[in-house]
Specification:
single chain, alpha/beta, Glutaredoxin, five-stranded mixed β-sheet, 12 helices
């Protein structure tokens, strides 16, 4: 996902003459003129960290570098997408935030920072090969109040449409995420949904137990079986059935009501216009007929 060459060039430039604020818990490196935002990060970080520790019951032992970017074009060159507003590189304890969009609804600095710190915490406790992407992203969205790291106004609509059309991406295919934006959006929504489903059906302890087994070195399938007493495939079937109950044609129509009404209005307008043209044509034909009739009688 990352443009490695651009990222390394940018990082070397940034670190060469760093604008930096460092505390015993976090290091914030920022472009000019983002000093105010940097101070905000330093101010809120202890509470963000404490809240994440409370949610996952794991300590945050690392001191992350938080890189603040002032415009989305720079981030786009790094990730190759316009919809990503932040990302983490767990192996470097690094978080990158696009400050030009991190305050755009529904995002907040706190929620976005918590989401990315969650990635670092998960990967510092679980080896990458044991942590499927759907669980990684799902847990981080759950822990940050549902916030993902991408701009997505119609995410839930994508999940509803996929559910109704039986085109949801299988968990087996979400070990890694797709690259195209449409599928990526659906992948994020599915990840959030299944983690929220686990919490609603098995409690918070259910998801925490899965993470704990993964931390101990078990596979994802064994961790789910030991924690929830169901196999991964059984969990997926139950979740999909839940989605079928939740996302009906009615809910799909509700999400798209304005589009549907606009389309109907457009059809009615076109239909009315066609009828008007036919009436005009009929009047012209009548006039021509009268003219022909008037001419033969004279």
């Amino acid at each position: 996902m990352l443009s490695i060459l651009f990222f390394l060039t940018f990082m070397n430039t940034l670190y060469a003459e760093p604008n930096k604020i460092q505390t015993k818990e976090v290091i914030v490196i920022f472009e000019e003129p983002l000093e105010t935002v940097a101070k905000d990060v330093v101010k809120i970080y202890p509470a963000v960290k404490a809240d994440l520790v409370s949610t996952l019951d794991w300590k945050v032992d690392v001191i992350p570098d938080v890189i603040l970017i002032k415009d989305k074009s720079t981030l786009r060159k790094m990730v190759g997408s316009d919809i990503i507003i932040a990302f983490a590189i767990p192996e470097r304890n690094l978080i990158v935030l696009d400050t030009s969009r991190v305050y755009t609804r529904p995002f907040t600095l706190e929620a976005t920072l918590k989401h990315e710190l969650c990635h670092i915490l998960l990967h510092s406790n679980i080896k990458d090969e044991r942590l499927p992407r759907w669980l990684d992203e799902g847990v981080c969205q759950w822990a940050s109040g549902g916030i993902a790291e991408l701009i997505a106004e119609d995410g839930n609509r994508a999940l509803t449409k996929a559910t109704i059309s039986d085109s949801a991406i299988s968990l087996g295919d979400l070990i890694r995420f797709p690259r195209d934006e449409k599928s990526l959006l659906l992948a994020y929504e599915e990840s959030k949904s299944i983690v929220e489903y686990i919490v609603s059906e098995y409690g918070k302890q259910g998801i925490l137990q899965i993470l704990e087994y993964l931390k101990e070195g078990h596979s994802i399938d064994d961790s789910i079986q030991k924690s929830l007493s169901v196999s991964t495939s059984e969990l997926e079937i139950k979740w999909l059935a839940y989605l079928k109950r939740k996302h009906t044609w009615f809910s799909y129509l509700s999400y798209n009501i304005y589009t549907i009404l606009f389309s109907l209005a457009a059809v009615i307008t076109v239909y009315g216009f066609i009828r008007l043209l036919k009436k005009k044509r009929a009047y012209v034909d009548d006039d021509e007929e009268k003219d022909r009739g008037g001419g033969s009688s004279s």
